[in-house]
Design a protein that fits this description.
Radius of gyration: 18 Å
Helix content: over 70%
């Protein structure tokens, strides 16, 4: 019987699957770094106090991309192009979630509504990232090759999630509650669809790289569909609730450096 731990161990042990995994992860983090950098530069005057926090978020994402690239370099591997069907960030944008790149590429100030849309997108996607990294930290936090990277990224993702909660609650208190809840719901329902599609694509690619049997690939795909069914029925609610985090002002300082990976 396979488990999440055994599956990731199998990916970790094979150079080609590890190269694919790190390339996909690095691509998504790099894209997130660019997006946050642009949002930081375009924040409206009324919310300029947020700009350093958004910049810190982007710096963390860039750092994560460098970490995944460094893990590849340690093995003497080079990145591979990210298959479009596994590009989580791009597929979310195509689904109309978050701020469109066309908007971010213009040098026009964002609106308060744009900032709320950005924060709602972050609250949903960072929920997913925090949960995934917590799972990896539980299984591989002490791993000699990837343990330090997993612990560092996991801590950052928890900070990003706490920041999104706190800022959205601030906007809710200022009278934007209905917009926030509507946007969170739209983001969550779109995200679980995109996550399902990306998971199926990654499972198929890993199956080909690692030579999984058709029966095993089918069983894993069925598991992905089962997770989606649960999330579509009720699991998405965890992505839209708001509570004041224990970590207050989680992005209030400079980004944590990673000299061992940079």
């Amino acid at each position: 019987m396979f488990s999440a731990k055994s599956l990731f161990q199998e990916i970790l042990d094979d150079d080609e699957s590890f190269r694919l995994f790190c390339s996909i992860a690095a691509g998504g983090e790099s894209q997130g770094g660019w997006e946050n950098g642009r949002i930081s530069a375009l924040v409206p005057r009324s919310e300029r106090a947020m700009a350093p926090k958004i910049a810190r978020h982007g710096a963390d994402e860039d750092k994560h991309a460098r970490i995944f690239d460094a893990l590849l370099k340690k093995r003497g591997l080079t990145p591979v192009p990210v298959p479009p069907e596994t590009d989580y960030t791009m597929l979310l944008e195509r689904a109309g979630i978050g701020l469109a790149h066309e908007k971010l590429e213009r040098d026009e100030p964002l609106t308060v509504r744009d900032v709320i849309v950005y924060l709602a997108h972050s609250r949903v996607t960072e929920q997913r990232a925090s949960e995934q990294m917590e799972m990896l930290r539980r299984y591989f936090g002490d791993h000699p090759e990837v343990g330090r990277a997993v612990r560092m990224i996991s801590g950052d993702e928890d900070n990003h999630l706490a920041y999104a909660h706190e800022e959205l609650l601030r906007f809710a208190a200022a009278g934007h509650g209905r917009l926030i809840q509507r946007t969170l719901r739209e983001c969550a329902l779109a995200e679980i669809r995109v996550y399902r599609d990306v998971s199926l694509a990654v499972t198929a690619l890993m199956g080909r790289v690692l030579g999984w049997s058709r029966a095993r690939s089918a069983a894993l795909a069925a598991g992905v569909h089962a997770v989606y069914a649960y999330e579509r029925l009720a699991g998405w609610h965890r992505m839209v609730s708001l509570r004041m985090p224990e970590r207050r002002n989680a992005l209030g300082g400079p980004a944590t450096p990673a000299p061992e990976y940079a």
